[in-house]
Amino acid sequence: MRRRSEEAGHLQGLLTDLAERRDPIGVSLSSGDHRNGCVEVVGADFIGLRLEDGGLSLLSLDSIASLHLGTDTDLVGDRPAPRRDTDMHGVLDQILSDQPHVTIVVTGSTVAQTGTLERLGEDLVMLRSDDGSMVHVPLSALVEVRLSPGR
Predict the structure, then answer these.
(1) pLDDT greater at residue 7 or residue 84
(2) Taking the domains of the chain in order of start, what are their residue ranges?
(3) 63: helix, coil or strand?
(4) Strand locations in the chain (E)
(5) What is the signed CA dihedral for 65, 66, 67, 69, rounded to 10 degrees?
(6) With contact defined as beta carbons under 8 Å apart, do 48 and 15 qualify?
(7) How far apart are CA 120 and CA 83, in angstroms?
(8) CB atoms within 10 A of CB 104
(9) For residues 80 and 4, which has the higher predicted lDDT (pLDDT)?
(10) Which residues pair with residue 48 across a beta bridge?
(11) Fewer Cβ atoms within 10 A, N terminus or C terminus of the chain?
């Protein structure tokens, strides 16, 4: 029976279980970075990970290389996950009016960009960098959008 349950396991189901339990986890990203925290929200194409310092990291599901669960966590994500309508674009649109200071990590780069989230297009994020320049990032290239503690 356990093997059958494991065969039915999927990422959205596992993330839903983790969000409900608030278990601390480690997340390895395709960028080579690692984040520790608790899954707070699961969207259609992202998770919101509450970091140990209180910040919130929005991580693209496509950027998750692996999840590291504690030794006392025995989850396989074997239940159907609810349909998720909220996506990364929707969340960024909700916080855009606050023009939050963010740090972004993109595919293929080890250098994070910090600045103010200023604009959001249909498939493009525009960030006013701390040096005053404008950085345009396709949504599909986002690995992480990290919000400062207090968000």
Answers:
(1) 84
(2) 2-69, 88-147
(3) helix
(4) 24-29, 34-42, 46-51, 56-60, 64-69, 101-106, 113-120, 124-129, 134-138, 142-147
(5) -160
(6) no
(7) 24
(8) 21
(9) 80
(10) 41, 58
(11) N
What integer pLDDT is reported at residue 150 of this predicted model?
Answer: 66
Q: Are 14 and 20 in contact (CB under 8 A)?
A: no
Q: What is the pLDDT of residue 74?
A: 75
Mean pLDDT of 132-136: 96
Q: What's the rounded Cα separation, in Å, for the pair 78 and 86?
A: 22
| The two domains 2-69 and 88-147 share their CATH topology (first three levels equal) | yes
Q: Does domain 88-147 have CATH number 2.30.30.100?
A: yes
CATH number assigned to the domain covering 2-69:
2.30.30.100
Q: CB of 146 within 8 A of CB of 37?
A: no
142 Cβ contact partners less than 8 Å away, ≥ 6 residues apart: 60, 63, 88, 104, 105, 106, 107, 125
Q: Which of 65, 55, 67 is nearest to 145 (CA)?
A: 55
| Number of helical (H) and strand (E) elements in the chain, helices listed first | 3, 10
Residue 4 confidence (pLDDT) above 70: no
Q: Where residue 71 falls among pLDDT bands split at 50, 70, 90? A: confident
pLDDT at 2 over 70: no
